[in-house]
Structures are given as C-alpha cells and as structure tokens.
Design goal:
By secondary structure, the chain is mainly α. It is built from 20 helices and eight strands.
C-alpha cells in the first residue's frame, strides 16, 4: 500500500476540501468531490485519501502534531521541553485552550472523520462490485472509529458526526456528545468493520485495515471502558499465537518489530504507513525524536528537534538484564550534557522529516498484554501469567524470564506487573499516558514522578488532579461553535 499510496495521494489530498461559494475556479491538478464519487476508481481514491489523513494524526512535519504529544509526553516516559510550539506545556500540564497543538489535532481528527463520512454516505450509490464496496465502507468505519477513539481519550465527549456535512450552518448545530455515546459509536463501527474486512491483503493493498485490526482495536476500546468480559471475548479471536486465523505472532527478536525491511511483519496488526524519498509522505519521527542537544551529530539531515526525548525514569525502569532497554534507548553525550533518545524510529533519510518509519498503532504484544489484563480483572492472575511471560521470554531472546511469585501473588500485584510490562514493552509508542488514565493510575504515578525528580513549573513542583486527565477543547472551536463547552 505504501507505493500505491504515494502514487495517488497527490490526486486526492484536496478532494474533500471546502470550496468558497462566491468563486468558481477549477484546479486541473485536483479532483472535485462530485467527480470523485462517480465510480469505483474514484471511490478507491477517496478511501486512500482517508488513510492519508492518518499521517497528520500520528505525525507529519507539514501539518501533524502526532499522537506522541498526547500519549507519551504527558507521561513519565518522555520530555518535550522545546522553545515555542507549545509542546512543553503538555509535559508540565500547563496547556491552555489556545495551545495550537490542540487545534491541529482536533482539525486532523475531524478531517479524517469527514473523509470517512463522505465515503460511507456516497459509496452505496456507486455501481460497482458489492463485496469491494462493502470492504471500502468497512475500512472507513474502522478509520472513523480509530479517530473517535483518539478523540474521546484526549477530550472526553466530542461532537459525534456520522454523516456528510454540506454547510457551515449545519456544522454549527453539533454539541458535545456524551463519552458513553461516543464509545457506543466506536464499538458499532468496529463491529461493522470486522464483519466485512478481509483477514489479510496482498500486493498493493498490504497495510489496509483488516478484520483482525478491527478486533484488536475493539478489544482495546472495551478494555478502556472497563468491559473486561467483552475485551477478553474479542481478543480470544486473535489467539493462540501463530495458529490464529490471522497468522499473528511475536517476531523472534524484539528489534525486528521496528524493521524497515519487514515493516508489516507478523506482529504488526495495524500501522500508519509512511514512505520517504521526496513524495510528501515521509515520516518526521527520526528528526523529531532525536535529542535537541545532539544537533547534527546523529541526524545527518534535518537536525534534532527533541520533541519526544526519553526520560531517565523510563531508562531506570528496565532491569539491567532486560535487552529491551538497550534495544529501545540510546544515550547521546555532548561536551556539556547528555540525553537519552529512542532507537525505535532510527532511519537514514536523504531529506529532513522524510523517513520511512511507520507508526505502529497496535501490535500483537499489545494484544497479549491486554488479554492478560482482562483475564486478571475477571479471574485473577492464574490464567493471565503465561501471556505476560511469553512477552518477557521474547524480550529476553527466547530465554524464560518469568514474573516472580510476588508479582503474581494477588490480583493487585498482577495489575502492577502488567502495567510495568506494558511500559517496558511498548515504550515510546504512544500508549503510556492513555494506559495510566485507563487504569486510574495517572494521578498517583505522575505526582510521585514529579516529586521524585523535582519537576517544576516555575518554582512549584508539578502536581496533577482530576481535571488534568482530559485536555482542553481548542479555544478556536468554542469560539466558532457556542454549543461546545470547555472541560473543567
């Protein structure tokens, strides 16, 4: 899908953009919305345009903040203290509603949702193969659900738009739906997608949403809602390892998860795809995540931004014997200071912010740890232990390194063991903050972290309370639509 995506994205990027009614100009390099939805070829382009919107959500230098700013930076995993841009506000929990990164993420999420809504509403009228049309609709429901899942975890209840909006006046009638209603829509979209999406793809379709991806994300949605029985039932369909219908399994070596030569390996369930090389579809993570003090010492092009710099606390959380520590984290030592950085997005791009690293949205180790968590919540540790130990065994290059008797002695201890394992296994992949909020551990963990390292905003050690668990609704959206209310 990477090559296919590169070839046609230039045709579709603005196909769903708004046009001012007082001027009628046709750009010969763009496709109008009406022309796009006339046949199966146009519908295919529209679907690819929705996939393209994911790049801005998960990170793109030309207009995407990236999910890391919401999933990693507010946590004890990383730091983003940089001059300007408002990124450091997420680290110190000093985020004001006018922070531009909030508006950018909001706009990017709703751009993807809008593209999905248009395609879902117009596809039924197109004369084409019914199975393919239903698959396209399923893909759009998957992307819409994924976008709303990100939105509801960031802001709580958000405007729930599930149809094509054709006028500005129509858009201003929406207010914030309840969190429960947003989750209900996410669940329904993923259930619908699961029934029509294929198990796998070949050729240029590789990388599209599959029925397995829908099951995995739905399992995570249920886990986030505390619906542990439904989570377990959904994820059971992705088990056992290797012999499940989808072929999902842990790759042998932890470092191979992030291979640039085998990006869609058997562990990857869904990823946002990027291709470097001057096509406008490259990923920025290589430059974004290198420590700012390293300058051009590591980055041969584009410099080092320090937007997502590894904290010492994450490094220290690894046992010294855990190979994942040195496979995940490296240290740069300059003349006057040093800094840690993630190895997971290392590449060799020929231009700045134009690497080929995909962003992994969900992978099989995540599924195994989620299943263990649901099992522990339902029945205690006994039947959850093996799933965590399998992940640990792969981490230790095939050598068993099981949880201790103390870690598995009670449901509460097992919760903490799974929390730690998720932090180590999935580090710097955008999960940590959402995990802490989901398990009601964010306030306890983060306040202890701020105190331990004396992390201050001004002269005061940072401490968070319940109102910090959601981010502010962007000020611009409230100014445009008075129906929207601000978070506390």
């Amino acid at each position: 899908m990477k090559k296919y995506f590169v070839l046609i994205m230039m045709l579709v990027l603005w196909a769903t953009s708004c046009k001012k009614s007082f001027i009628q100009l046709e750009n010969p390099t763009q496709i109008s919305t009406n022309d796009l939805y006339k046949d199966a070829t146009g519908l295919s382009l529209a679907v690819t345009g929705a996939y393209g919107a994911l790049q801005n959500i998960y990170g793109k230098s030309s207009g995407g903040v990236g999910i890391y700013l919401f999933g990693d930076v507010p946590s004890d995993n990383s730091s983003a203290v940089v001059t300007g841009a408002g990124l450091g506000d997420f680290e110190y929990f000093t985020i004001a509603p006018e922070n531009p990164n909030l508006e950018t993420m909001w706009a990017n999420l709703y751009t993807c949702i809008a593209r999905c809504n248009i395609t879902i509403s117009r596809a039924p009228a197109i004369a084409m193969d019914t199975t393919l049309r239903n698959r396209y609709i399923g893909e759009m429901k998957f992307l819409r659900a994924l976008s709303y899942f990100n939105a509801v975890r960031i802001w709580g209840g958000v405007p729930l738009v599930t149809k094509e909006i054709t006028t500005i006046a129509q858009s201003l009638t929406y207010n914030r739906a309840t969190t429960a209603n947003v989750y209900a829509q996410i669940e329904q979209d993923l259930k619908d997608a699961e029934t029509v999406l294929p198990i796998s793809y070949t050729g240029t379709d590789l990388g599209r949403a599959t029925s397995g991806a829908a099951k995995a994300i739905l399992g995570k949605v249920y886990l986030t809602e505390g619906k542990f029985d439904l989570c377990k039932a959904e994820l059971t369909g992705l088990l056992p390892r290797g012999t499940n219908p989808y072929g999902y399994d842990l790759v042998t070596n932890y470092s191979d998860v992030y291979s640039l030569t085998d990006e869609l390996n058997k562990e990857i369930i869904f990823a946002v795809r990027y291709t470097g090389g001057g096509f406008g579809t490259g990923s920025p993570f290589y430059n974004w995540f290198l420590p700012e003090i390293s300058g051009s010492a590591i980055a041969k092009v584009g410099g080092s931004s320090g937007f997502n710099t590894v904290r010492q606390d994450l490094f220290d959380a690894f046992p010294t014997t855990d190979p994942r520590r040195d496979l995940s984290i490296a240290k740069y030592t300059g003349t006057t200071a040093s800094a840690l950085y993630t190895r997971k997005y290392i590449d060799a791009p020929t231009a700045a912010f134009d690497a080929s690293n995909d962003w992994i949205v969900i992978r099989y180790a995540d599924v195994m740890l989620m299943y263990a968590e649901a099992e522990n919540e339902l029945n205690g540790p006994a039947n959850a232990i093996s799933y965590v130990n399998d992940v640990r065994k792969r981490a230790y290059a095939g050598v068993a390194n099981n949880l201790t008797a103390a870690q598995t002695s009670s449901q509460a201890n097992m919760r903490l063991a799974i929390e730690t394992e998720r932090r180590l296994e999935l580090n710097m992949e955008g999960h940590r903050w959402f995990d802490l909020v989901r398990t009601n551990r964010a306030i306890t963990v983060m306040n202890a972290h701020f105190t331990k390292y004396q992390i201050k905003s001004g002269t005061t050690v940072v401490q968070i309370t319940n109102h910090d668990l959601l981010f502010p609704i962007p000020l611009r959206e409230i100014q445009l639509n008075p129906n929207l209310t601000q978070n506390p």
